[in-house]
């Protein structure tokens, strides 16, 4: 079997405040999600999102079902969003071949039975994905950066000048609950999602990339008045519960993918936290 998904359980914010560094990393950080010819990731009880990576190298990789789903095929009751962070490759969706370039997204809806990820012709195919439970079937759709809803925020003076590409949001493509997008920080900017926020009706996951080997991101997690940090490297992901902020600062600029699942599809539904209120 070429798929390995581990289960992680939810945490209470009062318990979280007592976690030591290693326990925080074990419960929330995904350190290695690109393993050759594998689909690797985590099934989190935070809104039952599955977060992971797909890395076909010299053979196709099939989206097989997993024990946690108790389903004959992976997408029987699920939808999946995929963003390519490597070289252009081909994804076969129930017999239809779709070419996906770097920083392009693909949405595949509930009911699709056969998904195959093919190696890149040259270089590495690195596909980051989020999958959420789904109640309806919506069509497969590829979304490029030109298709996305694009917003530029922040400033170089505040070290957070960034462009947000809303790829899988309800203003661009129809989904059940999954939302995904990508934020690119401009050179000289290092802060993301600052001012910070929380949203009680949906959890979130971050995936960091475009980081050179010598650079890292300090990702902030926890209730606004009880924060901790996780030092993260290139191609690592982190789970953020509904009660937690999700923000970070790097030793250089970088790009990250955000993904959300929950009962609310309103992108702007956030409870903002002023920087001076953080503890």
Notes on the protein architecture:
The protein contains two helices and 24 strands. The chain has one domain: Sandwich (Jelly Rolls), CATH 2.60.120.10. The strands form five sheets. A seven-stranded mixed sheet has the order 1-3-4-11-6-9-12, with no helix packed on it. Strands 2-21-18-23-15-14-13 form a seven-stranded antiparallel sheet. Strands 5-10-7-8 form a four-stranded antiparallel sheet, with no helix packed on it. The chain is mainly beta. The mean pLDDT is 96. The chain has helices spanning 13-16, 21-28; strands at 3-8, 29-30, 39-44, 50-54, 61-62, 78-84, 89-93, 96-100, 105-108, 115-117, 127-133, 141-143, 149-153, 162-168, 179-185, 191-192, 196-198, 202-209, 217-223, 226-232, 236-240, 245-250, 255-262, 271-273. The termini are far apart. It is 4% helix and 44% strand.
List keywords for this structure.
seven-stranded mixed β-sheet; seven-stranded antiparallel β-sheet; 279 residues; single chain; Jelly Rolls; mainly beta
Summarize the structure.
With 279 residues, this protein is mainly beta. The chain has helices at residues 13-16, 21-28, and strands spanning 3-8, 29-30, 39-44, 50-54, 61-62, 78-84, 89-93, 96-100, 105-108, 115-117, 127-133, 141-143, 149-153, 162-168, 179-185, 191-192, 196-198, 202-209, 217-223, 226-232, 236-240, 245-250, 255-262, 271-273.
């Amino acid at each position: 079997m070429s798929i390995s998904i581990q289960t992680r359980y939810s945490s209470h914010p009062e318990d979280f405040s007592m976690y030591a560094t290693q326990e925080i990393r074990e419960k929330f950080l995904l350190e290695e999600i690109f393993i050759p010819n594998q689909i690797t990731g985590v099934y989190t009880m935070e809104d039952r999102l599955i977060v992971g990576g797909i890395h076909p190298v010299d053979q196709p990789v099939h989206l097989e079902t997993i024990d946690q789903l108790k389903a004959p095929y992976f997408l029987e009751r699920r939808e999946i969003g995929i963003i390519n962070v490597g070289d252009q490759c081909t994804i076969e969706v129930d017999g239809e071949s779709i070419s996906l370039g770097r920083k392009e997204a693909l949405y595949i809806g509930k009911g699709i039975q056969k998904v195959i990820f093919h190696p890149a012709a040259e270089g590495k195919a690195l596909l980051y994905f989020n999958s959420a439970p789904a109640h309806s079937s919506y069509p497969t759709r590829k979304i490029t950066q030109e298709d996305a809803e694009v917003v530029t925020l922040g400033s170089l003076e505040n070290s957070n000048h960034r462009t947000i590409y809303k790829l899988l949001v309800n203003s661009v493509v129809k989904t059940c609950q999954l939302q995904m997008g990508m934020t690119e920080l401009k050179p000289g900017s290092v802060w993301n999602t600052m001012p910070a926020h929380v949203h009680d009706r949906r959890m979130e996951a971050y995936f960091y990339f475009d980081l050179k080997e010598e650079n890292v991101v300090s990702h902030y997690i926890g209730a606004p008045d009880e924060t901790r940090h996780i030092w993260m490297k290139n191609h690592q992901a982190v789970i953020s519960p509904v009660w937690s902020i999700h923000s970070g600062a790097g030793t250089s600029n970088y790009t990250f993918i955000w993904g959300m699942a929950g009962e609310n599809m309103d992108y702007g539904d956030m409870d903002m936290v002023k920087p001076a209120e953080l503890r």
